[in-house]
Amino acid sequence: MKPTHIEHIGIAVTNLQEAIKYYEEVLGLTCYSIEEVADQKVKTAFFMLGQTKIELLESTDPEGPIGKFLEKKGAGIHHIAYAFDDVNAALTDAGQKGIALIDKTPRKGAEGLNIGFLHPKSTLGVLTEFCGK
Amino acid sequence: MKPTHIEHIGIAVTNLQEAIKYYEEVLGLTCYSIEEVADQKVKTAFFMLGQTKIELLESTDPEGPIGKFLEKKGAGIHHIAYAFDDVNAALTDAGQKGIALIDKTPRKGAEGLNIGFLHPKSTLGVLTEFCGK
């Protein structure tokens, strides 16, 4: 099952306002949305560039996934999200191919998208998200 | 200065053939090129997905940049490359904004593109490449 495009790249940052400033002033992008995802214990900022979004992730809880990532690895690229027309089918297909799934079925993520994560132990060290409408 | 799109995402892998198999069989992508970049001490494999390429990077020398990255951090996402119409101007602009540059002027990279890297200490932990024709 092939994704249609790279939906977004997730980047863990220590300070969202400082990071938005960098992406706007140095890379010339425009932040079009800031959203807190309570379930994931993050505050996110989105930028559109061609087909793909940059999603900045600031932790709202040291015990959340981004809090733990920042403590262990520091700020940097966190995950890649591939867009699929049918996220549920894509997750099922990956699972049938032996990939360890963090989410066996889609749940709601930022921007109201259906999302599911594959475990990096099965994806050559790359935390991988499948997402779509 | 704004990039036109995300040109590629660079991913460090320990075994290129194993990684190609994963990207083809699980993600449904097609490897269209394998290229050794002697200067960077890497062997690369490329996949196209919408506007953006996935560039897998296998080290050919433990002392090269990918060899050192793999030893320190293990396999995973290595860098993001932004496409610019004028890479030289984009590097100059970033330098004038106080960003530390690994390459002050473009050099030739994989696929014959002009490339230049920004230092992750200036880019919130994200190794960032500017590239273009």
Give the SSE layout.
The structure is a homodimer of 133-residue chains.
Chain A: E1 5-13, H1 16-25, E2 31-37, E3 42-49, E4 52-59, H2 65-73, E5 76-83, H3 87-96, E6 107-108, E7 114-118, E8 128-132
Parallel strand pairs in A: 1-4, 5-8
Antiparallel strand pairs in A: 1-5, 2-3, 3-4, 6-7, 7-8
Model description:
The structure is a homodimer of 133-residue chains. Chain A contains three helices and eight strands. The first copy, chain A, has helices spanning 16-25, 65-73, 87-96, and strands at 5-13, 31-37, 42-49, 52-59, 76-83, 107-108, 114-118, 128-132. In chain A, strands 2-3-4-1-5-8-7-6 form an eight-stranded mixed beta sheet. In chain A, a hairpin with a 4-residue loop joins strand 2 and strand 3. The first copy, chain A, is globular, with a radius of gyration of 14 Å. Chains A and B meet through strand 1, helix 1 and strand 5 of A and strand 1, helix 1 and strand 5 of B.
